[in-house]
């Protein structure tokens, strides 16, 4: 029955998959059972970009943290195959981000080694650690990206600041992790909606690196006043995100002003500070 579940999961047909799951008396056992290549249906669906199946399997009780004999998880496989939609489903299900396989590689190592830019960024935003070392080579994700010659992933890992991670939910949402739709909302708030087509594929990480000349040459923002408005807003937004709100214990308590009557000198100011 595990093999049948795997076969249907790989088709990404959730109607058929759910119909099978509903008929299983021992569903919890089968859904986490090992089949082909000593892997579960969730692992293989994650590797094969079957994101609808991944979503359903997780909802029906699939364990996203199970490992194959090499210590590989579903997250490893999604990252290795740049299956970004599967990876997002796994991250939203709160699977462990920094699990290492028998070689000490995390999912971030996998994504970096394959040059999977979108999966790399998604893992970083979720809070994956960049400092974990492989067991024998002591390679970090940046090291394996350099070895593979993946320039975009190298650039991303080199400039990534851990404070941009969403792991700390109490912190302001950093511009670096804004989606393209959030960038569009930002432009609308500045009355710059006419430039939305040019910014269609620009996310927050790219937005915060813009400069005057590039806005004119690449984005067609030829009016200096518009460029200035956007660049000033970017700086102010980043400053706002960097400045934590004062805690109650940190707020300055000003002394209360009390009126003091001076009967002997009516001409004096009755309020003494």
Automatic annotation (TrEMBL):
InterPro entries: Ank_Repeat/CDKN_Inhibitor (IPR050776), Ankyrin_rpt (IPR002110), Ankyrin_rpt-contain_sf (IPR036770), SAM (IPR001660), SAM/pointed_sf (IPR013761). Residues 178-234 form the SAM domain. Gene3D superfamilies: Ankyrin repeat-containing domain, Transcription Factor, Ets-1. This is SAM domain-containing protein. The keyword Cell division does not apply. Transmembrane segments: none annotated. Pfam families: Ank_2, SAM_1. Coiled coil: none annotated. Keywords: ANK repeat, Repeat. It comes from Saprolegnia parasitica (strain CBS 223.65). ANK repeats lie at residues 37-69, 103-135. It comes from the Eukaryota.
